[in-house]
Design a protein that fits this description.
Strand order of the largest sheet: 7-8-9-10-11
Number of strands: 18
Shape: elongated
Helix content: 25-40%
CATH topology of the largest domain: Copper Amine Oxidase, Chain A, domain 1
Oligomer: single chain
Strand content: 25-35%
Radius of gyration: 20 Å
CATH superfamily of the largest domain: Copper amine oxidase-like, N-terminal domain
Number of helices: 10
Distance between the termini: 25 Å
Number of domains: 2
CATH class of the largest domain: Alpha Beta
CATH architecture of the largest domain: 2-Layer Sandwich
Length: about 290
């Protein structure tokens, strides 16, 4: 089983304290360290995975689905911060967790949680079962600014309490990075599924991290070293207002989530079936209407 985990206590790898630069080429390692574990789950989605908070066993429900460990949100929030207030809205199927350090919403069926204005993505969506809301233990730990580690020996996650809430989105995201990244995502994939939008954003950030391309988001988007790189900069659609999901996708990318760290090109095969990219680069995958290449 492949699980993603991180040291979730640090808040300042990317944000208003510094531009996103190639020296941050390992930022994705901070957010999404990938490891393969031998974890068993029964056919009903149960789990043999253990979860401990400050060495105390978490007694709430734990489930493994699609290679991701989920925990009961309400019980986890109360276990990690006894002061947290948890309320549920039946009308929009959303749990709200609030404390002096954290304001977080967790919505049934969503691919992300929103914590202090930060967008934390999960490839395996949040879900409800038997009246209990489940979310990935890794995302919840990050939201609470807790450290989380994995032990192969015990098949368990170990969570250590941190400050109680991650740095706010206002402090973490750079306005200019969100602005231009969401603009290009919207112009290239505004009508695509969220994962397709994220993949477009990944291409931009992968180029920023590469020594072959400019080292800022703006520079990558308007790069003309080998001709216009992105048609929206030539036809003017780059200047259209980004829709809300494109802005969310940009923030998810800036959090460090990546479908692949080495995709540098994308095309719409129906629009450009004989493009240089299709003939000269290795295909990674097609997501929505776009094919992505290394």
């Amino acid at each position: 089983m492949i699980e993603y985990y991180c040291n979730c206590s640090s808040n300042n790898l990317l944000g208003k304290d510094g531009y996103l630069k190639k020296t941050l080429s390992f930022i994705f390692v901070f957010v999404l360290l990938i490891s393969t574990f031998s974890i068993t789950a029964n056919a009903t989605g149960g789990s043999s995975v253990g979860v401990y908070i400050n060495s105390q066993e978490f007694t709430g429900n734990v489930r493994v689905q699609d290679g991701t460990t989920f925990v009961a949100v309400r019980r986890f929030a109360n276990a990690i911060d006894s002061s947290a207030k948890v309320t549920y809205s039946y009308s929009n199927r959303t749990l709200t967790i609030s404390s002096s350090k954290l304001y977080m919403t967790v919505k049934d069926g969503s691919s992300y949680i929103v914590a202090n204005g930060r967008y934390l993505y999960t490839p395996s969506p949040i879900f409800m079962k038997n009246g209990i809301m489940y979310a990935p233990v890794i995302l919840l730990s990050k939201a609470f600014d807790a450290k989380i580690s994995w032990s192969n020996a015990t098949s368990s996650f170990y969570v250590t309490r941190g400050s109680g809430g991650i740095l706010s989105g206002d402090q973490f995201y750079r306005d200019d990075e969100v602005y231009w990244l969401s603009k290009i995502i919207n112009a290239e994939s505004g009508g695509e599924i969220l994962k397709g939008k994220i993949a477009v954003g990944n291409v931009i950030l992968n180029r920023v991290r590469s020594s072959y391309f400019p080292n800022t988001i703006y520079g990558v988007i308007f790069d003309k070293k080998n001709g216009v790189q992105f048609s929206p900069t030539a036809n003017g659609t780059i200047y259209k207002n980004a829709n809300s999901e494109s802005i969310i996708a940009a923030k998810i990318c800036l959090e460090g989530y990546s479908v692949n760290n080495y995709i540098f090109y994308f095309i719409n095969p129906r629009v450009a079936p004989n493009s240089w990219v299709a003939k000269n680069r290795e295909l990674y995958a097609q997501i929505g209407n776009h094919a992505f290449y290394y």
